[in-house]
Design goal:
The complex is a heterotrimer of chains A (294), B (299) and C (252). Chain A is built from 11 helices and no strands. Chain A has 294 residues and is an all-alpha fold. Chain A folds into 2 domains: 2-55; 59-293, MetI-like (MetI-like fold). In chain A, helix 3 runs antiparallel to helix 8 (190-219), helix 5 (128-142) packs across helix 6 and helix 8 packs antiparallel against helix 11 (260-293). Chain A is globular. With 299 residues, chain B is mostly helical. Chain B folds into 2 domains: 2-47; 72-294, MetI-like fold (Orthogonal Bundle). Chain B is 78% helix and 0% strand. Chain B is globular. With 252 residues, chain C is α/β, with parallel strands linked by helices. Chain C has 10 helices and 10 strands. In chain C, the strands form 2 sheets. In chain C, strands 6-7-8-3-9-10 form a 6-stranded mixed beta sheet, with helices on both faces. In chain C, strand 4 and strand 5 form a beta hairpin. The chains are: A mainly alpha (294), B mainly alpha (299), C alpha/beta (252). Chains in contact: A-B, A-C, B-C. Chains A and B meet through helix 1, helix 3, helix 4, helix 5 and helix 6 of A and helix 1, helix 3, helix 4, helix 5 and helix 6 of B.
Chain lengths: 294, 299, 252
């Protein structure tokens, strides 16, 4: 039947041995490289903590920035961040969640819906500094809000809106349709179904996404620079129209100075910032855990 | 009676639906606003500075005399960062993805994935700090010619920032390759190295490519790390140890200064931002298109 | 029963998924250049058993075994045995065709290339395709993607791919279950020819197929080997009552 000799191959033992060694080496290489990423993270955290831990104390948290490093603190930055995040949350969360509800529960599958979803996907990838420019032109100048907390909050909201919408959509989509069918069969309107059944079920996923989006907002600097959040602020905002500063801005300002002590102050500020983020992410993990138990 | 209340509920539903629609439509308004604002100022800018000079000029000195408006130095600066970041993020990202999808145990995955997420969640200003206070001094020890502000430190740090995204997307791409293909390879007497590099990775190549494209887009848009560590010197160079300025860093520089609105300098901000916006947009569209295509192959 | 030494021999083999005993103490000889069919209801452990013969179970988490599998009197699972080498001699065709997303030629050439089997590669590919009765249909388009072939053609391609390695044994895990009757018949005809040069172990739940094609038949149920013997005897004069119930339940 065939012209070839069968069993012509002498299985080359040396060849097999080499390939086996090569395969093992490759596995070690890949795991080593992955370990590198862990090492980098450890290095980064170590560097920051050793630079800054001496500065993080009650006085640091309770003082305004100053030309004198010993007296400087991040009170205004921390409070400013809280104001900013608070207003951002008030604006972005309802808008984002309701938008996701529309897209998942109400929107017909037509070109307009597709166009909206494409827009959201694209906005998610636009550099944050472009949002800053948008905020500057529209909120600061056109609407005349000036360099205020509310202008910052509106800008940040636009930035994180795509993130919230995408996360909320995922959460809503994972609610089984059988749940909705049952409610409709009992004669409920669409909004009643959403409010009473879909939203509660999707809430853990939505909350997780919201918290992650807000974490992103807390860490963003470029948009705030664009709208003019000040870098030397020795007062606390008392209303949304007040000027403000924020943690990332203060950190940026101190890092950009040539003196070593200001770098250490910056490290201290970073520790506070990371602590805030850690808390928020721990909250997200906790919510995800509680949500999955139900 | 029943008719009246049914009508009222329907009217309420109608209002709610329109409200929700508006919330979703905000995204469209945002995009339109971005395009409109960038376009308006950029077109005004081009009334003074010829487009060709802007796109091909090799000197960028809008804040000094004599003024030049060639964007290439900024583009070169951005490209240096992007390439450096790619050199860091792509090999490590792909190797990590291979480890995660082909070799890692469940336990290892459950440790590594969160760590990557943490790396991704660290604010960029922190990475800028790290570049300036740790990487640059380190580099200057190894290569004493390195300037205090240099492209390399920023590029390394942007690479670290982008790494989790590359690893995660490549991991998804590799895991989408069906197990039956791997088994087919193993049944022919192949080692795991051969199955991984000659079957799995080639099969997942379009997903890996999409990851690269999206990573490049992120790196182009990166602002704070490059502002803090790479410098403020528009410099058309290929030497990563020199101080440069990226498009994003220039935008920050202008807005930190006192620039009267309506001035030419103010308009440069928008012109540069337009280039930034268009390039990231096109890369994102390319990346998501490739990603959608690779998902279809296995369904 | 043939009194030659079996080329593969399972002795008191039990296979576990974690704590679950999927294959219970099986002793089963596979004779050289014969076709052995393994039949039984779904979930009886026949695929699990088959996969243990070329160490493909190594890739499933939590699988362990007791007892031995001998390949030409050598313990297949000994520490000194390289599973890669084992699979060079014992090839496999899977239930659902799994061609690589490459050209037809490269699918067949892939295994021999990796293992540096030598000889004229073009000739090897051609012979493999001829033995799998696919050559006439693809000779003029070897560079086309394998994914463009029909289901039956893809499965024959996978058979050719295994044949190109010149294994001694070919394991087939329900190779026709995803195919139409015409493709199935073509592959069954193939098996008669392949028997001259290869030992074949075929898992199937199509009893007509087992009766037509095989020399020996093993009947498994719930992980236990109920009966093993020459096919003729197992189907017409089964020794065990359960065998009789199974084979007659499906006939007529």
């Amino acid at each position: 039947m065939s012209d070839m000799n069968f069993r012509t191959q002498a299985f080359n033992k040396a060849n097999l041995k080499r390939r086996r060694a090569q395969s093992k080496a490759f596995e070690y290489f890949c795991s080593g490289v992955t370990g590198l990423a862990v090492v980098v993270l450890a290095l980064l955290l170590y560097d920051i903590f050793t630079d800054g831990y001496r500065w993080v104390d009650a006085q640091f948290l309770n003082s305004f920035p100053s030309r004198f490093p010993e007296k400087a603190g991040i009170k205004s930055a921390l409070v400013g961040t809280l104001w900013l995040v608070g207003f951002t949350a008030i604006i972005a969360i309802p808008t984002g969640v309701l938008a996701a509800i529309y897209l998942e529960e109400y929107a017909p599958k037509n070109r307009l819906t597709h166009f909206i979803e494409v827009n959201i996907a694209n906005l998610a990838g636009v550099p944050s500094i472009v949002f800053g420019i948008l905020g500057l032109a529209i909120f600061v100048r056109f609407f005349g809000l000036g360099r205020s907390v509310i202008a910052g909050a509106l800008t940040m909201s636009l930035l994180i809106l795509p993130v919230i919408i995408i996360a909320a959509k995922e959460a809503i989509r994972s609610v089984p349709s059988s749940l909705r069918q049952a409610a409709f069969a009992l004669g409920a309107t669409r909004w009643q179904v959403v409010r009473a059944h879909v939203l509660p079920s999707a809430m853990p996923g939505i909350l997780t996404g919201v918290i992650l989006a807000l974490s992103r907002a807390i860490g963003e600097t470029a948009p705030l620079i664009m709208i003019g959040a000040l870098t030397f602020v020795a007062f606390l905002p008392s209303g949304p129209m007040d000027e403000f500063t924020a943690l990332p801005i203060q950190i940026f300002n101190w890092t950009a100075r040539p003196q070593e002590t200001f770098h250490e102050l910056a490290a201290g500020g970073i520790i506070v910032l990371l602590a805030v983020l850690l808390l928020m992410n721990a909250l997200a993990v906790f919510i995800r855990y509680r949500g999955s138990k139900q | 009676m029943a008719e009246l209340s049914a009508k009222k509920t329907r009217w309420n539903e109608w209002v709610l639906e329109k409200l929700f629609f508006f919330c979703a439509f905000v995204s469209v308004i945002t995009t339109a606003a971005v395009i409109f604002i960038l376009l308006e100022e950029t077109l005004t800018f081009f009334e003074t500075v010829p487009v060709l000079e802007f796109l091909t000029g090799t000197r960028w000195t809008p804040l000094l005399e004599p003024k030049h408006y060639g964007i290439l130095p900024l583009v070169a600066g951005t490209m240096l960062i992007v390439m450096g970041a790619a050199i860091v993020a792509l090999p490590i990202g792909v190797a990590s993805a291979i480890f995660l999808s082909e070799y890692a145990s469940h336990r290892a995955r459950s440790i590594i994935k969160p760590i990557l997420e943490i790396l991704a969640g660290i604010p960029t200003v922190v990475y800028g700090y790290f570049a300036l206070t740790f990487i640059t001094p380190g580099l200057r020890v190894i290569l004493p010619d390195t300037q205090i502000f240099n492209a390399a430190s920023a590029a390394i740090v942007v690479g670290i920032m982008v790494l989790p995204m590359v690893a995660s997307l490549c991991d998804d791409a590799l895991r989408a390759v069906p197990a039956s293909l791997r088994h087919g390879g193993y049944s022919l007497g192949a080692t795991s190295f051969e199955v991984t590099t000659r079957i799995v990775v080639p099969a997942g190549l379009s997903g890996i490519f999409a990851a690269f494209v999206l990573a490049v887009s992120r790196a182009i848009g990166e602002t704070m790390a490059v502002t803090l560590a790479a410098g403020a010197t528009p410099n058309l160079t290929a030497n990563p140890l020199e101080s440069i300025q990226t498009m994003t860093a220039y935008i920050v520089q202008v807005s930190l200064g006192d620039t009267p609105s309506g001035s030419l300098t103010y308009q440069t901000l928008f012109a540069v931002a337009s280039v930034l916006f268009v390039s990231t947009l096109m890369l994102n569209i390319l990346g998501t298109w490739v990603m959608r295509r690779f998902r279809e192959v296995y369904e | 029963m043939s009194d030659q030494t079996p080329i593969l021999n399972a002795k008191d083999l039990s296979i576990f998924y974690g704590d679950n005993e999927a294959v219970k103490s099986i002793s089963l000889p596979i004779f050289e250049k014969k076709i052995t069919a393994i039949i039984g209801p779904s979930g009886c452990g026949k695929s699990t058993f088959l996969r243990s013969l070329n160490r493909m179970n190594d890739f499933i988490d939590g699988v362990s075994h007791r007892g031995e599998i001998l390949y030409r009197d050598q313990d297949l699972y000994a520490d000194s045995v390289d599973p890669v080498e084992a699979r060079l001699r014992i090839g496999m065709v899977f239930q659902k065709a799994n061609p690589f997303p490459k050209s037809i030629y490269r699918n067949i050439a892939w295994g021999p290339n990796i293992n540096q089997l030598g000889g004229n590669l073009d000739l090897r590919v051609e012979n493999a395709l001829k033995q799998a009765a696919l050559w006439d249909e693809v000779a003029d388009r070897l560079d086309d993607s394998a994914l463009n072939l029909s289901g039956g053609q893809q499965q024959r391609l996978c058979i050719a791919r295994a044949l190109a390695m010149e294994p001694e044994v070919i394991l087939m895990d329900e190779p026709c279950s995803a195919l139409d009757p015409v493709s199935t018949a073509r592959i069954e005809d193939l098996l008669f020819e392949l028997k001259e040069n290869f030992t074949i172990v075929i898992v199937t739940h199509n009893m007509q197929q087992a009766a037509r094609v095989s020399d020996y038949t093993a009947f498994m149920e719930n992980g236990v080997l109920v009966e093993f013997g020459e096919t003729d005897q197992v189907f017409t004069r089964p020794k065990e009552k359960r065998t009789e119930e199974y084979v007659t339940g499906r006939f007529g």
